[in-house]
Amino acid sequence: MSDLAHLILALALGLLLDRLLRPGALRTALAAALIGVGGLGAVLAGQTHWLGLDLGLLSVMAVGIGGALMARRRRFAKQG
């Protein structure tokens, strides 16, 4: 699989998670898990490929998706 396909797959997953995941506690927990696993994977996986997927690239994208979820974790909270 090409790097562009990996990035498109990660972007689609990130958009789906951002739009469909509403509870703030669940968003925070998933964001922390993605940042932790992605950071660990970026250090350990490097340029490892598994079933055609570049694990290093996907782990870096997981950190980005987790950061976006963490930054917007109160997106659906009621204002006021």
Shape: elongated
Question: What do the pLDDT scores average to?
Answer: 85
**Alpha-beta classification:** mainly alpha
Computed CA radius of gyration, to the nearest angstrom: 14 Å
Percentage of helical residues?
Answer: over 70%
* Number of self-contained structural domains: 1
Could you give the count of β-strands?
A: 2
Strand content: 5-15%
Strand order, main sheet: write it out.
Answer: 1-2
How far apart, in Å, are the first and last alpha carbons? Answer: 47 Å
Uncertain segments: none
Please outline the major beta sheet.
2 strands, antiparallel
Order of helices and strands: HHEEH
* Discrete helix count: 3
Describe the structure.
The protein is 71% helix and 5% strand. The chain starts with a helix and ends in a 9-residue tail after the last helix. It has a two-stranded antiparallel sheet. The protein is elongated and about 45 Å long. It has one domain. The protein has three helices and two strands; from the N terminus they run ααββα. Helix 1 runs parallel beside helix 3 and helix 2 packs antiparallel against helix 3. By secondary structure, the chain is mainly alpha-helical.
Short description:
Keywords: Membrane, Transmembrane, Transmembrane helix. By secondary structure, the protein is mainly alpha-helical.
Give a quick set of tags describing it:
mainly alpha, 3 helices, 2 strands, 5% strand
Write the topology of this structure.
Blueprint: H1 3-20, H2 24-45, E1 49-50, E2 53-54, H3 55-71
Antiparallel strand pairs: 1-2
